[in-house]
Amino acid sequence: MSNTFRLYIKNAKQVVLVCNSGERYLTKDGMQKLSVIENGSLVVGKDGLVKAVGQADTIASQFEGASFENVIDASGMCVIPGLIDGHTHPVWAGDRVHEFALKLAGATYMEVHQAGEGIHFTVEHTRQASEDELLSSLKQRLRRMLRAGTTLVECKSGYGLELDTEMKMLAVLEKAKQSLPIGISSTYCGAHAVPKGKTVAEATEDILKVQLPGLREKMVQGELKVDNIDVFCEKGVFDLDSTRAILQAGKDMGLQINFHGDELHPMNSAQLGAELGALAISHLEEVTNEGIAAMAKSKTSAVLLPTTAYILRLPQPRARDMLEAGVIVALGSDFNPNAYCCSMPMVMHLACVNMRMSMNEALAAATINAAYSLGKSHSHGSLEVNKQGDLLLINSSRWEHLIYQFGGHQELIKYVIIKGNIVYENDKTMGY
Ligand SMILES: N=CN[C@@H](CCC(=O)O)C(=O)O
Ligand SMILES: [Zn+2]
């Protein structure tokens, strides 16, 4: 075996593994007691995988005589797994700052949507935008996420609502995968809204008969690699029956079910997701007790989005009830033109303050459980041997500062590392 490794991080004040026994997700007490090594070190191999993590002196003797392409002295700093953002809509043209003003003045999300604005506004601009324009703004947004510590992100289509634009958005995501180090889980979300001029039945038919077959073709040819299928299951958008038909068709194509449910009205989306074997349901502000029980039983994760409730002044998702029932709770930024937030540290802070999660629960939700929601917790979401070497160095003596210092991530995150490569180094030199 070669004695050369890609990265040696030594003498960190804390190394937060999150979990250390190959858990695929954490629930209940498991989210409260995270695995943390005080005075730890970690080694990543040339294949980008974690080779060892443990007490600093143990690792030092284990790797005596080995050579490393890069060594970081992490004295006084903390190491945590790269953050995983379980829900974003980052491919679009046409921001909605004007609409933010309307909502601040009292307009609701659905009033704006039903007036033909909201998602429809973004759809018009996204249809007109070229692939290059979309790729350029997407890359800026992904770089911003990366600087905020996100190393794997779920990214949706859904501002086309017809075959060509949906495929254009997914193609743009494919190009971003080739040119940026951040990990991307792609989601087809052609059922994000009912396009103007169509009924729900017509839109569903178009998805089932035109868009999904078109997508399948591109996947078979290797042009697109799509992981998940999504529907906005909501009163006035896609009802339960149309949602079921679309999700089932996606599942039949091999896509993981990961959809928007029970956001503004109780729709029994949670029960539907549990019945269909969904991997994840997002939002859930209006989930019922029956829905929570069904998700706990089916191991369908709840991707909670604190920015949505905050910006739209909605009731908070019932995180505590879900946690107590044993639901696998994950977090996402919901980055989109309505909720312009790229920062998982801020999302974790909001989850703690507004949804009453503890800091340990929030970190588990933004790492191992978010990885589970994307079907990637075998390779991502904790610092364990043979998992991908995705991690952050936090310039503080306890990792919790990343949540505590609201907005402080811009200074606290010293390095972002993916597969053992430094992909961002924070240079705080100001020259005065
Ligand atoms: N609720 C539906 N979809 C997005 C909002 C998308 C938009 O308004 O452009 C969400 O998750 O918050
Ligand atoms: Zn969304």
Automatic annotation (TrEMBL):
Annotated GO MF terms: imidazolonepropionase activity; metal ion binding
Catalytic activity: 4-imidazolone-5-propanoate + H2O = N-formimidoyl-L-glutamate
Name of one Pfam family that matches: Amidohydro_1
GO CC field: cytoplasm
InterPro entries assigned: Amidohydro-rel, HutI, Metal-dep_hydrolase_composite, Metal_Hydrolase
Gene Ontology BP annotations: L-histidine catabolic process to glutamate and formamide
Pathway(s) annotated for this protein in UniProt: Amino-acid degradation; L-histidine degradation into L-glutamate; N-formimidoyl-L-glutamate from L-histidine: step 3/3
Amidohydrolase-related domain boundaries: 79-423
Cofactor(s) for this UniProt protein: Fe(3+)
Enzyme Commission number(s) from the entry: 3.5.2.7
Keywords: Histidine metabolism, Hydrolase, Iron, Metal-binding, Zinc
Family the UniProt entry places it in: Belongs to the metallo-dependent hydrolases superfamily. HutI family.
PANTHER family: IMIDAZOLONEPROPIONASE, IMIDAZOLONEPROPIONASE-RELATED
The protein's name in its UniProt record: Probable imidazolonepropionase
Organism: Megalops atlanticus (Tarpon)
